[in-house]
Amino acid sequence: MEKTSDMEINERNEMGGWDNNQMVMPQMTSPEMGMMPNNMMPNVTSPAMGMMPNMPNPVSPAMEKGLEKLVADCALTCQKMIHDIICMKDLDMRKNQLCLLMDCSEICHVTACFMARRSCFTPALAHLCAQVCEACGCECLRFQDPMSQMCGQVCLNCARACRTVR
After folding, report:
1. Labelling 107: which of 18, 122, 136, 158 has CA 20 to 30 A away?
2. 8 Å CB contact between 163 and 130
3. Spans of all domains in the chain
């Protein structure tokens, strides 16, 4: 594996990244860590992992930002709902809802981050996000309070949007 300077790595990242066949790990030379040779670094193109294809993204940047915002908003809506549930008198009846809200908030946050950096894993993660959002949305809609109803609709809209990611 060839040695690449930090400056060269930064230049490549600014130019649009790396082709998987060109992936090179930098030498780690912090005073605290000493020197870690490249042969000790993980091999990002190992046969077990396979090669990640450089796939063109058919979605426009405006649509990407809209979807990313929708998913991030779902995460925040679920976080607000968690706070509201903790203050409710019928908390014992809402344990499943609370668990699903935590799952939904977390997966939406992670999915939005993957979308923002255009990860090749975004479609798979978006599919999982859709499943969790749908479960959370359906559970929220079982409760008649306005916050649960609103949160349920946000989650179901997010699920629908995540299913469009290819």
Report:
1. 18
2. yes
3. 6-40, 61-162
Say how many C-beta atoms besides its own lie within 10 A of residue 10's C-beta.
11
**CATH code for 61-162?**
1.20.1270.360
Separation CA 112–CA 155 (nearest Å): 14
- Listed in order, strand segments (DSSP E) in 85-128 are none
Summarised one tens digit per residue, pLDDT across range 39-54 is: 433 333 333 334 344 4
Q: How many CA atoms lie within 13 A of 107 on its CB side?
A: 24
Within 10 A of 126 (CB to CB), how many other CB atoms are there? 24
CB atoms within 10 A of CB 155: 30
pLDDT, average across residues 137-163: 98
